[in-house]
User: What shape does this take?
Amino acid sequence: MSGKPVLHYFNIQGRMESIRWLLAAAGVEFEENLLMGQEDLEKLRNDGLLMFQQVPMVEMDGMKMVQSRAILNYIATKYNLYGKDMKERLLIDMYTEGMADLFELFIKLMSSPTEQRDAAKSLIKDRAKNRFFPAFEKVLKSHGQDYLVGNKLSKADILLTELLYMVEEFDASLLTSFTLLQALKTRVSNLPNVKKFLQPGSQRKPYSTKIY
Assistant: This one.
């Protein structure tokens, strides 16, 4: 075994994509065990590797970690992407939980019946433009710093950048009036590790195959 983290998930973005983003931004090389179907998932279950019988699962540091937010918190702590103290960690958690609410709307969209998708899309547009993006824009404006918390790259910046790419691919016009968010997206995207992850041929999964 190479010693690299091994990510067990399907060949889609889904709930593993944020973990891919965070590892890549931290400069951590990882391997993937891509599940091709239900049989591969059942094998992991039958081998007793999934605590709650579901993926994502990450093998790392001698552990088989499940639950995506717990995994993200572990990675952020290990690679110093989780603030310098309890107050900064609270802010990072507040911001990432807000992002998670918007991510969940995308999950709901993907699982919605066809006749309900227009309403689900409208809800995403409304919440992104009128609730979540104004809040993050206000945070950046309030302190005038490069990053959301402590003027240092954190889990919150990386996951927000991932979300901005998702929303941009969904409807680019939603970002038009949020100049500070656009600047953050550019700033994080130009970091060498992230820039590499955004290149064709990386382990980043395309939006077009996103399934929840």
Residues 117-143 form the longest helix (27 residues). Residues 208-212 have pLDDT under 50 and may be disordered.
